[in-house]
Write a structure and sequence with these properties.
2 domains, elongated, mainly alpha, about 130 residues
């Protein structure tokens, strides 16, 4: 049996395990290929929750980076426990921007760095010499 066939069978099993009896009509509405695709996404989500990297998952299931990113994003948005447990969405506190006087030398240098390149180079040279 080829590896793709094995993966498809595993995906179908994952799909049928996740679908409940009260939504069994959903299984009747989907085609065989749609069930496999949903099952593959379930397997990918289980692997992500288990802590596997994209490269480990890709070795077994051949997952595109976009699919992996979408499933991981879905897990982060739907399951707070997942995102907090794995620290996938670190909340970095933004620093308040440093206030500079409008139209001061420091403000203009920060806003237009290319225009002040020569001045910056000279300032760096003086800092090194000191």
């Amino acid at each position: 049996m080829s590896s793709n066939k094995k993966i498809d069978d595993l995906a179908l099993k994952a799909f049928h395990q996740c679908i409940r009896e009260d939504v069994s009509s959903l299984g009747n509405l989907l085609t065989h290929q749609e069930k496999i695709k949903i099952g593959r996404r379930i397997l990918i989500a289980q692997a992500i929750v288990a802590g596997k990297t994209r490269f480990e998952i890709n070795n077994h299931l051949s997952v595109s980076p976009n699919t992996f990113r979408q499933i991981r994003k879905w897990l982060e948005s739907e399951f707070y426990e997942y995102s907090s447990a794995h620290n996938l969405t670190p909340h970095k506190k933004k620093r308040a921007p440093e206030h500079t006087e409008l139209l001061s030398y420091k403000h203009l240098k920060k806003k237009y760095p290319a225009h002040f390149l020569l001045f910056s180079l000279v300032e760096e040279l003086f800092k090194i010499k000191k």
